[in-house]
Amino acid sequence: MHSPEATGAQVATVVDFFRDADAASDSPLLWSLTHQPQITHALSGLFHGNAALVQLRVWVFLQLASQGDAQLPRETIDEMFHALRPEALETVLKRFRDVGLLVWDESLRIYTLPPIAQRVAAMLAPLASETVPDADDDSAELAALLGQVVGANQLGAVDAGQVRLLHAQLARLHGEFADAIASGSEFRLREARKRYDRAATLIDRASETITAIISNSHGHVVLERAARGMGQAQSKLLAMASQFNRALQQMDRQRVTLGTTGITSTDVKRWLQSAPGLHRLIDGAIGCTTSLATLAQHELLDVVEAEFERDRPAPLQDEALPASQEAPEGSLKAVALPVELTDLNTLLAGWVGDGEEAGVHAVADALLGSNPADTRYAQVAYRAQLMPLLGDPQAEVLPGATGAFARQPWRVQWLATQKRIRHPQVELLSQGTLVPVGALPTEPSEPAKETHTHG
């Protein structure tokens, strides 16, 4: 079998590494990389070779990129790198010319950095920091990612790729902190809490930018999905502060103080972790080893048999079915409707029975009833909700008081105004009229869709 590196010379494009060309075209990230061959070619030339050569090239390149002059004469470069051997410097500059990181003008004998070199220098900007982060300290990586996202947002050039990288870093931190909490190790927990505090401080400083990205990503589906995922990861990470507090409090409760010395079990554990040659502490502490005197075979068998009998499940017992019982007597009761519906039916039927078929009544008279002062707000609201049932085709076929109310020869016509009334529980009441069916016009107006009763 041949590795991809071994067969790289026989492959024309990156698509040739895939089993199916369609699978390669489905990745937006791979599509973006294949359409930026200058970047990948420059990075390949910069980082190809052993670690010493890579460090030399990166150092020379960052030194050149940090110069303030747009043009760099060869004499200036020789002065800048006078400590290097001439053949080493010439090899590095030739590599930069080959991959497009430097442009040489033979007539003027000057070097210039093309735009592609500026982009590569921006990628390598974290390497130019004077402080070297610890291997276990991920705050530098998080700060770099946050700086890219915040800066791109200020310039209005933030994209989904940057947001996804930050989301992945936050998710990794959450997983590492969760493992530290679940480990039960006090030292690991306290070290993780220091890292968490640094990460939380960075996220808190960039929280406004993260909120702005989420709120301004509407219309860009990929960016909006990435921004929402990053917001959820941020919330989950910031919510871990309470978990750290509970775990540390549990550790404090488990700490034991050795007598009146003031030395705790944590101090002893820390001393044991730092003390050299722990095996020498037991020199002379054990005079003789313990040995097993006698073992009786029949006693061992008795103990084993007893253990087997104790752990053996009890056999299932036959249980008779319960005796028959007579079913209790029951009754079917219908749900009683509120008395307000019956009273409203009686009131409307009375208006028709008085010979006032052509008369028009105010809705307020029906809502407040025959004793307006004694009517409660709940009764007025319930009657107002019943008014749309008048003349409803589906309700007219129902039996009982509801169907009788729907078959009443009245129709309600609401107005868009309200009237202030003197009532102990109702201040404003929507105005309207109850019109007999015979007095309605040929083309009835559209009934009101809402009923407003203000208490």
Automatic annotation (TrEMBL):
This chain belongs to the protein called Uncharacterized protein
The top of its lineage is: Bacteria, Pseudomonadati, Pseudomonadota, Betaproteobacteria, Burkholderiales
